[in-house]
Amino acid sequence: MTISARNWAWAVRTRTDETGRRVPLKGGEKVTLLYLAEMENAEEGCAYPTIATIAENTGQSTRTVNVHIATLVEAGAIRIEKKHRSRDGRWLRNTYVLHVPETYRENDPAWMRSN
After folding, report:
1. How far apart are CA 25 and CA 100, in angstroms?
2. DSSP secondary-structure letter at 42?
3. CATH of 3-109, one of 1.10.1740.10, 1.10.10.10, 3.30.565.10, 3.40.630.10
4. 3-state secondary structure (DSSP) of residue 81
5. Domain map of the chain by residue range?
6. Average pLDDT, whole number, for the chain?
């Protein structure tokens, strides 16, 4: 967990919808973003919980978490990278990169130490 990701996630209140209007984050979108921020690894600069883990720990279904993650990607809050493959070539896990502004990062000792 990095304090910069956590503080940023709490500060994110809106997103741009498909029509270009600013709309408030829904509760599930917010809790999903907060969970990813809590799971961010300062040394690796990303979070990598499974969808099932996110769902279990936020009290949502896996389907709902998938929808919220897609919305957060569209809003530009996070990016998904595929990094882990099985022997048969299937992707095993997503890696989530949070788009935390540098203004949050520069005051985070854990982030500055590792990056």
Report:
1. 16
2. T
3. 1.10.10.10
4. strand
5. 3-109
6. 90
pLDDT higher at 53 or 84: 53
Measured CA angle at 11 (ends 9, 17), to 5 deg: 80
Give residue-wise pLDDT tens across range 22-42: 999 999 999 999 999 999 998
Please provide the size of the chain in residues: 115
Q: How far is CA 54 from the centre of its chain?
A: 10
**Could you count the other beta carbons within 10 Å of the beta carbon of residue 49?**
19
Query: Phi-psi category of 59—alpha, beta or left, where left has phi over 0 and alpha has psi -120 to 50?
Result: left
Cα 12 → chain centroid: 12
The pTM for the full model equals 0.88
